[in-house]
Backbone:
């Protein structure tokens, strides 16, 4: 402010000096030499006035026009913007935006995960999913479920309200949590099975042992007991021993859920592994009057996985398919196992059959331990499949079949 004040005083003094010289020159109009002298003397005040006016104008120009950004700063800012856009584009969370200023309030995908979710082959009803996400309240987190080609999936939705350039907008983030929820549920079931089998075995073991001991004592005392009483006691003790032994075997099968060794992944050629499986299960399907087909696309496809555990999971699925076809009296049962790379370069193995399929009301429970649709089933086959697949870092889903039968998708 002080420098601006000095410039203003200097300009005023210069103007005063110029006015004085102009008046003097007018008074001396009859003497040319003095007029020239006045003009020369006016050069100094004029120059001083120009400097003062220029000094007063420069701060105002700097206020009205911002300084140009250095080239290096512009490049740094552009790189930061591009890096931010790349991170958002490839974020593992599906991001959607709702611009209320546009009038329709339509929900639009903002990154690759969101566009992939709405693309054909993923969400069964993309428009219904759009409406579901658009209806979520701002500032809250909700767990939602929606149908996909791989079955029902659950995801966590968070909505934020913001204002950009004076327009109200909403940012919707959809985080898939199906795999995490399945892993937690599987761990909970494993712990429950471990506790139950431990307690049951602690009770069954002495019952089985005592029943065998009682049978031996009964034989030794056969001469001291009436024939009918001996026969009844022998029948009762034999029944106890048999049921105890059967329960021991039954519980031991469930104990396998909690005692599966950790996966030991190695690089495996899927075509060679499928050839071993075909040699193992194909004769059984041929004896039923059907066939099972294995395919790998491309033939050179391989994976880093525990081959033994994956083979066991596929055997369980094919065994369930064969038993379902037999129960439904399918004349020519068919099954196929196909391996290929899905979007994103993930391994996808599809197991399909032409059997009776899984009823829609039971589809959500088929992987639950102890659950079975067969009278003599133990409910361990599909539970073991899910356990083995999760142990290898994958997921298994019951997918909507293209035609008749059941269809399972294993993704790694």
Residues:
């Amino acid at each position: 402010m002080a420098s601006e004040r000095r410039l203003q005083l200097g300009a005023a003094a210069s103007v005063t000096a110029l006015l004085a010289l102009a008046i003097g020159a007018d008074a001396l109009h009859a003497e040319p030499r003095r007029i020239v002298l006045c003009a020369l003397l006016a050069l100094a005040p004029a120059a001083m006035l120009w400097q003062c006016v220029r000094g007063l104008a420069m701060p105002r120009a700097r206020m009205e026009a911002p300084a140009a950004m250095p080239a290096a700063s512009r490049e740094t800012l552009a790189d930061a913007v591009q890096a931010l856009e790349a991170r958002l584009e490839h974020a593992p969370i599906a991001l959607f935006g709702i611009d209320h200023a546009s009038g329709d309030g339509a929900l639009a995908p903002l990154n690759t995960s969101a566009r992939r979710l709405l693309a054909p082959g993923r969400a069964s009803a993309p428009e219904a999913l759009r409406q579901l996400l658009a209806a979520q309240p701002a500032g809250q987190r909700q767990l939602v479920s929606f149908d996909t080609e791989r079955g029902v999936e659950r995801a966590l939705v968070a909505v934020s309200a913001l204002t950009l350039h004076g327009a109200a907008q909403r940012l919707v983030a959809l985080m898939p949590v199906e795999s995490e929820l399945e892993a937690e549920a599987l761990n909970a079931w494993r712990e429950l099975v471990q506790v139950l089998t431990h307690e049951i075995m602690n009770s069954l073991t002495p019952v089985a042992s005592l029943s065998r001991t009682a049978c031996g004592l009964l034989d030794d005392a056969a001469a001291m007991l009436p024939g009918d009483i001996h026969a009844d006691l022998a029948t009762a003790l034999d029944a106890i021993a048999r049921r105890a032994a059967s329960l021991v075997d039954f519980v031991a099968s469930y104990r396998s859920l909690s005692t599966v060794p950790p996966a030991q992944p190695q690089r495996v050629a899927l075509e060679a592994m499928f050839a071993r499986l075909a040699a193992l299960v194909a004769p059984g399907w041929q004896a039923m009057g059907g066939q099972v087909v294995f395919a790998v696309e491309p033939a050179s496809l391989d994976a880093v996985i525990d081959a033994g555990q994956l083979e066991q999971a596929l055997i369980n699925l094919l065994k369930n398919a064969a038993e379902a076809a037999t129960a439904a009296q399918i004349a020519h049962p068919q099954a196929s196992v196909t391996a290929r790379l899905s979007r994103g370069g993930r391994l996808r193995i599809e197991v399909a059959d032409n059997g009776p399929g899984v009823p829609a009301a039971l589809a959500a429970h088929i992987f639950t331990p102890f659950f079975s649709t067969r009278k003599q089933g133990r409910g361990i086959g599909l539970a073991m499949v899910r356990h083995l697949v999760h142990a290898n870092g994958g997921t298994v889903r019951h997918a909507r079949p293209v035609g008749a039968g059941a269809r399972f998708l294993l993704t790694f």
The chain has a mean pLDDT of 78. Residues 181-258 form one domain.
